[in-house]
Every structure is written in C-alpha cells, then in structure tokens.
C-alpha cells in the first residue's frame, strides 16, 4: 500500500487537491472504511487527502437551512437541536451506527456516504 499523504489546511486547498488528483485520490475523514478497503486491496489511491487539519469541518450550521461539516460525529448530530424536530430521522440513523466509541469519533458524513457493498 503506497500513496502520497496530503494534509490541507483550508477548504480551498482540499478542493484543489481533490480536483487535481481526481480518481487517483481519496479524502480521509474518519478513515475506517477507506483504510480497510486499502488493506484488503479493494482501493488503491495514489493520493490520500486528510481533512483533519481543515478548520470548520466539524461544525453544524442550522440557520434556515442545514449544513453538516464532513467531520461532524454521529454524537454531535444526535445532540444538535436542529435535528430534534422534522429532521429526527437523521438522529435515528446516527443512533444505530456502531457503539459509543464509533459514534463519538466517526464522522457522520463519511459513514452515511460509504459505498456498500465495497468496490470490487
């Protein structure tokens, strides 16, 4: 497993890297599925772009519309008041993913958008 690891420090830099690498790159948010698929030989990215140093991706903005950052955890989504009304289904989905450790550390967006079954 050989790849170049990138740590952008802004959304603009992350977008630029994603555009530059295209299909040869993957974004790393939580990483569980990405790392497992790489170890199993299902994914072979030449570039991994970590989102962990990009400020603001762990926030939820609910002011007329809702924006959920790529690094918002299941637990943060469960507890945010914006999801206790008409968006309660998102909380219910977040509550059934993994155990306590997963929900407090895994990004909701990453596990909610994972391809299942994994790539062949």
Could you characterize what this model shows?
The chain has 120 residues and is α/β, with parallel strands linked by helices. Helices cover 37% and strands 14% of the residues. The chain has two domains: 1-55, 2-Layer Sandwich (Uridine Diphospho-n-acetylenolpyruvylglucosamine Reductase, domain 2); 56-120, Uridine Diphospho-n-acetylenolpyruvylglucosamine Reductase, domain 3. The protein contains six helices and five strands. A three-stranded parallel sheet has the order 1-3-2, covered by helices on one side. Strands 4-5 form a two-stranded antiparallel sheet. α2 links the parallel β2 and β3 (47-50). It starts with a strand and ends in an 8-residue tail after the last helix.
| CATH class designation of the largest domain | Alpha Beta
Distance between the termini: 17 Å
Mean of residue pLDDT values? 85
Structural class: alpha/beta
Q: Sheet bearing the most strands, described?
A: 3 strands, parallel
Radius of gyration: 15 Å
Topology as a string of helices (H) and strands (E): EHEHEEEHHHH
Beta-strand percentage?
A: 5-15%
Outline type: globular
How are the SSEs placed, and which strands pair?
Elements (H helix, E strand, L loop, with lengths): L3 E3 L4 H11 L3 E4 L3 H8 L7 E4 L9 E3 L3 E3 L5 H6 L8 H8 L4 H6 L2 H5 L8
Parallel strand pairs: 1-3, 2-3
Antiparallel strand pairs: 4-5
